[in-house]
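agent: user wants the structure for Cupin domain-containing protein from Phocaeicola plebeius. delegating to structure tool.
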Amino acid sequence: MSKIILTLLSCIVTFNVMAQEKIVQTAGRDQLGNFAPKFAELNDDVLFGEVWSRTDKLGLRDRSLVTITSLISQEITDSSLTYHLQSAKNNGITRMEIAEILTQIGFYAGWPKAWAAFRLAKDVWSEDTVLQDAKADFQKEMIFPIGEPNTAYAKYFIGNSYLAPISTEQVKISNVTFEPGCRNNWHIHKATKGGGQMLIGVAGRGWYQEEGKPAVEIFPGTVIHIPANVKHWHGAAADSWFAHLAFEIEGENTSNEWLEPVTDEQYDTLK
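agent: tool returned. relaying tokens verbatim.
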């Protein structure tokens, strides 16, 4: 039965309709349409098409939280829970959050149930554990903090980056950390006078490139002067975490123009 449930759940696709996430499910009809057409209809059209799709009432993240709590409370720790743990991760629940959630559940639903759920959750969030360990190791290489996920500018990056403000007075300075392979889009620091940016490598290995010129490697201590109105990008090497300090240079009528991403074809030529 658990395999049937997992198969049913694995075919869920989400898309946006009028700013509301709509869950489209066909697995019921695909798997049970001839054998149990009414069950298939209720599964596809009601459970997922209506209940899970009411994201204007309760978001997918919260629905995942309610669902995994309900399953664990009933001691359902089979492949259906694995699926919903994966959905919870996809819906934004982090490794640290799921650990705290399962700890909370353990006190109310039962310690053995929490243990069983933790075994599944460790596999679902295994990549995050490796990433967190690598991030912690990288932090030891530099004196500046890695900071928080750079969510405000995430749409201008390929991969994950982090931002830590170092100075907000006199000269604005930030420490920007890139996971391996992460880079920002081509962009231009515009100014009619002065302006531009300066980078100083802090830890790891990265790249800087101006349009029409070869890419330049950045190591700890490398200083990069970026004139205003020059199209460029910067980021980590494919096999290394990387961090640099970014200094905003004062100027007149300054602004940033974000452009197209650095393609994999362009990036993969760098070694």
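agent: one observation worth passing along. The longest helix spans residues 37-51.
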